[in-house]
Each structure stands twice: as C-alpha cells, then as structure tokens.
Amino acid sequence: MKLNKTIALGVAGILSATVVFADSHVDRAIQGAINARQSHMQLYAFNLGILGGMAQEQIPYDADMAAMAAGNLATLSTVSQAAYWPPGSDSAAVEGSRALPVIWEDFAGIAAEGQKFGEAVAALNEVAGTDLDSMKAAFGPVGGSCGSCHRAYRQPE
Amino acid sequence: MLRALTIVAVAGVAGAWFLTRPASLPDDTFAGMTGDPEAGALVFAAAGCASCHLAPEVTETAETVVLAGGRRFASDFGTFIAPNISSDPEAGIGAWSDLDIANAVIHGVSPEGAHYYPAFPYTTYANAAPQDVLDLIAYLRTLPADATPSQPHEVGFPFNIRRSLGGWKLLFADAGWTVDGDLSPEAERGRYLAEALGHCAECHTPRNALGGLDRSRWLAGAPNPSGEGNIPNITPAELTWSETEIAEYLNSGFTPEFDTAGGEMVDVIGNTSQLPASDRTAIAAYLKAVPPIE
Prior knowledge:
heterodimer, A: mainly alpha, Four Helix Bundle (Hemerythrin (Met), subunit A), 5 helices, 0% strand, B: mainly alpha, Cytochrome Bc1 Complex, Chain D, domain 2, 2 domains, two-stranded antiparallel sheet, 4 strands, heme (chain B), metal ion binding (chain B), Fructose dehydrogenase cytochrome subunit (chain B), heme binding (chain B)
C-alpha cells in the first residue's frame, strides 16, 4: 500500500513536471510569435515614420528616401503572417499581447483589413517618389487603414 | 409621536421627490438667437455625437450621417443602447422643439420629463455655450431621418429606477470646470473642447462605485469600460508628447513613434480631424495645463 502510494506520487510528480515543461515550451513558441508580429509592426512604424515625417513637414521631402520607405512597406505587406497568430496568443491569454481574442473569431474580417492595407501601401509605393503632394495624398489612406484595424482588433493598453 | 414620525417621513419622501425632479431650461434660453447648421457641424464633430449614435455597421467616414442608434455600450450597471436621434418624427427627435433637445443635451431630461442615463454625457455638455447647442440642433435637423426604433437599455434593478438618477445628478452633475486657475486663452478654448464638448474624461478618468467621475484623478487613466485593457493616463505625468505631437495625433491618428490610435480613439480622431487646426492645438495646450497625476 505504502509502495503504491509512493509510486503514485512519483508518477504524479513526473506528470506535473511534464506539464510544467510543456507549458514553458508552449509559452516560448507563443512568445516567439508575439515577438515576431510586434517586430513586424516596428518595421512598419519605422518606415511610416520616414514618410510621415515628410508628410507632416518635420523633415524635408526626399524622393529617394520616400521611395525606399514606401518600397519597404510594400514588401513588408506581402510577408506571410501565417505563423504569427497561433491560438492562445491573444490579450486574454497572454501578458504582453494586445491582440484581442476577436481576431481568432473573425479571421475574414482581419484578412479584409490586411487586404485594404496592402492596397493602400501599393498605391503609396506607386507615387511616393514622385513629389510631396502625391505622397501625402497616398499616405493618408495608409494611416486610415492602420487605425481601422487597430480600432476593432487591438486592446487599448 | 407616530404622527410626527409619519410627517417627517412624508416630508423626507416629498423632499427626495422634489430634489430628484428633472430640471429644465428656462423657456427664453434661446431668445433672440438663431442656430447656424454649418457651425453646428463642427460642434457635432467636437461633441463626438456620431461616435455613439451612428448605426453599428456604419463607419465614421460615411458620407451620409444617419443617427439611427443601436450601438451597444456595456458597463458595470448594464448595457446601454444608443437611441435613434435622427430627424425622423416618430423614431428620432424630428418632432422635438429646440428646447426639448437642449434639455436632453444639457440636463439629461427627456421631453416627457424622465432622466436619461449618464452614458449620455450630458454632465459634460452642461458646460456647453447655448449658441453652440442651438447650432448643433440646427445641424441635427439637416440630417436624414431613419425609422429604426430605439431599443430599450438592458439595465437591471435597481439601476432601472430612473428617478434615482435625480439623486445621481445631485451628486455628480453641474460640476463646472475641473481644471481651473490661470489658463492661456488657447488652453481655455482647449478646456471648452475637452471638458464641455469632447468629454475626454468620460473614458480617461476613473469612476467611483456609483459611476461618478473621480475628479481628483482627472484624465489619469481608467479601466476600459468595455472590460478589455486600460484607457491611458493623458495628464502631463504620463503624456510627454509635445503640443505639436498631440495636435498631430488628433489630426492623423499617428503617435510620435508612428504607431496609430486604436479602439474608440479611432472614432475620436475621426471627429477631431474635422476641427480647425487651431482647435487641435488648443486641446494640446489644455492637456499640458492639466495637473500631472502619476
């Protein structure tokens, strides 16, 4: 009887150790996906900053720089995000994520937002190197698209 | 003795009944004034009316502003559903007099004399200038009618006793300006936009157990009323952006780091971007004058 109990405890111990290991493993994978998508967003922000600085007339318009930044945005918008959004990486499940659970309930909705963003960025990329006014006109819809997606799918803070 | 007690009790009930009665504006509030719908369109934007009263599936940028209502606002007290305030005479407010609409906006009182729930930020609008209210009404009358009936709020006992809102108003309404002292004319304009029309504090200031704003923590951030995350502290203790950066954010939605606004702020920026640039700068000047709270 005593031996049985000891074995049972030992088995339970191994099981819980496995669970803890499995947990930390899952955490690492989810953390990796969160890091990747947040880094992707940082790359958007950096390139938007170059164009936005010119659009807001804080830095002088430079056609080559504008074309470069818009080209980067266009490239970034075509990078596949298929592995960025594993289940369990939403704001309700994980500390440090502001991705609302509704994303996983409404993939069609967020895909439509992504499509809109891709189109706005492609249009910007066509004209960013032409002149300041054309760039400004095409920059507005890109910002609008960011906001439109953040409105429904990102937690305030 | 019993009789005396009864008299006191009756007087108490009568007093409470008297104190909680819905207030209304004097009949001559708008005497000699005319509403200008064009100016009213800016008041409408500054006051953020569309952010609540547009139909749920309509975006702020819709060319035709149809105030059919139907958006749902969850809270600790129940779910409030924005009513139809289109110009439809049956479903909306088309048949109301100017004074009826003004009493609703400023005092939170219906034409039938019932209290509105303070999900409608009339405690803020109470500070609005009568001319602005009249301009707003003139603008509302130019908007299209929609026959969608308003839906009842989903509010349980005891919050469904509307008369008790009279007591709530005694405690929390008519507070006047929260940020006072020496303000530049620009910051004063900003205060008018933020405290009278824009109702920033409704989300950015925490509330007490009765749902009144905790004015000692004005704009210092609060839990998101819809339950997801927090609404940020926008006092100078946390919001360290320059005035130019704040004004730019209110125009384009871009933060200085070129992140963008999200959540309800997207609708707010849809409104503030319609205002003259000087108004956005004024709001920025006001935010710099707000006492810093950690």
